[in-house]
Design a protein that fits this description.
This protein has 1 helix and 13 strands, in the order H-E-E-E-E-E-E-E-E-E-E-E-E-E. Strand 9 and strand 10 form a beta hairpin. InterPro entries: ConA-like_dom_sf, Galectin-like, Galectin_CRD.
Length: about 170
C-alpha cells in the first residue's frame, strides 16, 4: 500500500480544512480543502445511476427552522432546472418532506415518516441511494423512506444543492 501510515490514516476535517492523522497531530497537506459553505451547489460526476450513493453529513444549527437537499438536472435558474428530488427538513412541523419539479411543475409532496430524525445542534448523516425505480433515503443508518423517480433520465441528475440551517461537514 502506498504512502506512510500517517498519510494513510489522515482524515479531512471540513470544519477547519486541515488534515490530521488518527492521533490528531497535524500532517502537512499539499492541498487546502475549503469549507463546505451553505448554500452549497456541487456537480455529481457522471450524474446519477442505479447503485450510486450520495452522502451528506452535517450538524443541524442550534435554532433551526429548516434545511434542504436537492438533486437537480443542472444549475439553471431561468428556466429552472428540473428537481429530481428535494428533501426538506421542517423543524416546526417535525416533517421531512420530499417532492420533485419536472418541466416547471411541482409534483405531489410526500411527508409521511416513521419519526423525525434531526435534532438541533446535533450531527446527522443522510444517504441518498439511487436504485432503478427509486431513491432510498437513510438517516443515521436507518432507512426512512423511498421516493420513486419522476425524472426518467437518471444520468441528467448531475447537481446537488444544499441550503438552510445546517453546517456541512462532509459530502461524498
Amino acid at each position: 500500500m502506498a504512502g506512510t501510515v500517517a498519510e494513510r490514516d489522515a482524515v479531512v476535517s471540513a470544519a477547519d480544512g486541515h488534515l490530521n492523522n488518527s492521533l490528531g497531530s497535524p500532517v502537512q497537506a499539499d492541498v487546502y480543502f475549503p469549507r463546505l459553505i451553505v448554500p452549497f451547489c456541487g456537480h455529481i460526476k457522471g450524474g446519477m445511476r442505479p447503485g450510486k450513493k450520495i452522502l451528506v453529513m452535517g450538524i443541524v444549527d442550534l435554532n433551526p427552522e429548516s434545511f434542504g437537499i436537492s438533486l437537480t438536472c443542472g444549475e439553471s435558474e431561468d428556466p429552472p432546472a428540473d428537481v429530481a428530488i428535494e428533501l426538506k427538513a421542517v423543524f416546526t412541523e417535525r416533517q421531512f418532506v420530499r417532492n420533485s419539479c419536472v418541466a416547471g411543475e411541482w409534483g405531489e409532496e410526500q411527508s409521511s415518516i416513521p419519526y423525525f430524525p434531526f435534532i438541533p445542534d446535533q450531527p446527522f448523516r443522510v444517504e441518498i441511494l439511487c436504485e432503478h425505480p427509486r431513491f432510498r433515503i437513510f438517516v443515521d443508518g436507518h432507512q426512512l423512506f423511498d421516493f420513486y423517480h419522476r425524472i426518467e433520465t437518471l444520468s441528467a441528475i448531475d447537481t446537488i444543492k444544499i441550503n438552510g440551517d445546517l453546517q456541512l461537514t462532509k459530502l461524498g
